[in-house]
Design goal:
It comes from Zhongshania marina. It holds the Pfam family Cons_hypoth95. InterPro entries: RNA_MeTrfase_RsmD (IPR004398), SAM-dependent_MTases_sf (IPR029063). Specifically methylates the guanine in position 966 of 16S rRNA in the assembled 30S particle. The chain is of the alpha/beta class. The chain has one domain: Rossmann fold, CATH 3.40.50. The protein has 6 helices and 9 strands. It has a 7-stranded mixed beta sheet, with helices on one face. The protein has a two-stranded antiparallel sheet with strand order 1-2.
Length: 193
């Protein structure tokens, strides 16, 4: 979730949970270059899309960054979330947020998305893919996920810069929803085995 575009909330090092049990909670994080939460507007649309599926879901937040997507999912009663992030300071901040929220239904994995996928069975019902923009990280991650036995009807959220082409998806992945907001394209994809 590291992106080159700035955002006022990111400059302040703050994210706001927009719905669920922790609605309106503000969480502070150490601002870093290119690190910002997915915008409130995009998260609101995404979680409207996910509303029939989020309660009790097992989520995987790859490229977690601030943890905004996984925290929002947990606030809306996802059963569990695995956060995957390479930066140790950012991982510590996500753990601190979970402690602040008294949430024990999550795990933070300080490693690359590819190493996490290679070492684990991916049994999550919702996967968030929000990699750094313009780094060509999506293609290898999509290929790695395609090599796993994802559950039927797994939902995958993909966020990219508007000027980035979406990599070729496996034939059994179907784009259900797609929108653009400013310089960001975002999509909800379902897996049909």
């Amino acid at each position: 979730m590291r992106k080159p575009q700035g955002d006022n909330k990111a400059a302040q090092g703050m994210l706001r949970i927009i719905g669920g049990q922790w609605r309106s909670r503000k969480l502070h994080f150490q601002a870093a270059e290119g690190l910002r939460p997915t915008s409130d507007r995009i998260r609101e649309t995404l979680f409207n899309w996910l509303s029939p599926h989020i309660h009790g879901a097992h989520c995987l937040d790859l490229f977690a960054g601030s943890g905004a997507l996984g925290l929002e999912a947990l606030s809306r009663y996802a059963a569990h979330c695995d956060f995957v992030e390479t930066d140790s300071t950012t991982c510590r901040q996500i753990r601190d947020h979970l402690t602040t929220l008294k949430c024990n239904t999550a795990a933070v994995h300080c490693q690359t998305a590819q190493s996490y996928i290679a070492a684990n069975d991916i049994k999550h019902s919702i996967i968030f893919l929000d990699p750094p923009f313009h780094k060509q990280l999506l293609t290898p991650i999509i290929e790695a996920l395609a090599g796993k036995s994802l559950g039927d009807d797994t939902l995958i959220y993909i966020e990219t810069a508007a000027d980035e082409a979406l990599p070729l998806l496996p034939s059994h992945w179907h784009t259900d929803k797609e929108k653009k907001a400013g310089h960001v394209n975002y999509r909800l994809i379902s897996v049909h085995n």
